[in-house]
């Protein structure tokens, strides 16, 4: 199933935006629970887009209480990466 189809089922909007310059770090996407919306950095390479969407969809599932929120940010980010990789059937 496509990432955008899953987002639509959750009522999460996906859009492309200029997320600014983060120096050496690359900000691929961000999730805004107030909308809810996943903003994808328009500078991403196409094959990273679906991974980024699925990563941020994990955070949406946390926000709506569907999955537990892990105690540390690093654990949450690793879990979001693993979730996306699992859905795409690639290694994170």
Number of helices: 3
Report strand order across the widest sheet: 1-3-2
Total count of strands: 3
Q: State the low-pLDDT regions, or none.
A: none
Give me the secondary-structure category.
Answer: alpha+beta
What amount of the residues lies in strands?
15-25%
Gross morphology is: globular
Helix content: 40-55%
Biggest beta sheet attributes: 3 strands, mixed
**Could you tell me the radius of gyration in angstroms?**
13 Å
Name the helix and strand elements from N-terminus to C-terminus, one letter apiece. Answer: HEEEHH
**Termini separation:** 19 Å
The oligomerization state is single chain
The pLDDT mean sits at 91
What characteristics describe this protein?
alpha+beta, 3 helices, single chain, 46% helix, 3-stranded mixed sheet
């Amino acid at each position: 199933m496509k990432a955008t189809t899953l987002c639509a089922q959750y009522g999460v909007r996906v859009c492309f935006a200029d997320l600014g310059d983060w120096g050496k770090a690359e900000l691929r996407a961000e999730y805004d629970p107030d909308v809810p919306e996943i903003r994808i950095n328009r500078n991403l390479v196409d094959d990273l887009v679906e991974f980024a969407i699925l990563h941020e969809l994990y955070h949406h599932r946390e926000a709506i209480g569907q999955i537990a929120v892990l105690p540390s940010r690093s654990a949450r980010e690793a879990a979001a990466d693993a979730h996306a990789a699992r859905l795409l059937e690639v290694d994170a």
